[in-house]
Amino acid sequence: MTLLTIVESGPLTTVQDLGRPGFAHIGVPRSGALDRSALRLANRLVGNSEADAALEITVGGFEARTNADVWVAVTGAWCPISVGGEQIDPNTPVRARAGQTIRVDAAVGGLRAYLSVRGGIDATAVLGSRSRDTLSGLGPEPLAPGDELGVGREPDAPIPALEISPWSPPSDERVEVPVVLGPRQEWFEDAEIEAFLGTVWALDAASNRVGARLVGDPVTRRTDAELPSEGMVAGAIQIPPSGLPTVLLADHPVTGGYPVIGIVSSAAIDAFAQLRPGQKLTFRHA
């Protein structure tokens, strides 16, 4: 049964779950929601499994019409949200009635919101996941007006009576990101590594689900030699010839030839999901 009809899809709205781990050996990254903690919370709020598929809404400008009564919740970026024209709070389960519209307007804090529906978004799974991989093109196409979405089986769990969840929007202040140096630390002088850690970086507007591009004082490598391609993981910080770091995110390529100066944790990747273009960040030793 069709549950949602998309009216407006905004700049980028995709179906995402917790991804498809275990396929890097055939060139497929994990993908999945960029802010996994927000996805998990959105699913818990409506009684779903944390791994169920939901909608990742980038920036906002999203609207859908319901074709049946359903519980919904929106987490992640702080956006004006309405159901049937009535404003609702983020991080709160709400019953949407058949024929009502669900609207997620432009984010005022953070960048990516997660809309869950009770039962989970029903889409064709590829390699065990319903996630859209924007680099390889695996998974459901990004949503467009007129698209129709179904819902999965009614979960056994009830709508929770109380969910302890944060009520403040993602911060637009400078973010401090812990990093483990290496594995190509030897490609950089000690002074350059300290400069990298001491620089206040800003998120480039060209960033996406593949990688967070940073602008600031370039990092100088010891050599202009080429590094043979090697395996890459989400959170790896590559330093290309420009000296401007790229932090690999969910849809990253599984191999790369730029030296990796350090790696950030999976929790830090959640934070990168909510950084806005121009927002400042620094790195520190984990």
TrEMBL record:
Q: Which residues form the Carboxyltransferase domain?
A: 25-286
Q: Which UniProt keywords are present, listed alphabetically?
A: ATP-binding, Hydrolase, Nucleotide-binding
Q: Which Pfam families does this entry report, sorted A to Z?
A: CT_A_B
Q: Which SMART domains match?
A: AHS2
Region entry Disordered, spans:
131-168
The entry's protein name is Biotin-dependent carboxyltransferase family protein
Q: Which organism is it from?
A: Paramicrobacterium chengjingii
Kindly list the organism's lineage.
Answer: Bacteria, Bacillati, Actinomycetota, Actinomycetes, Micrococcales
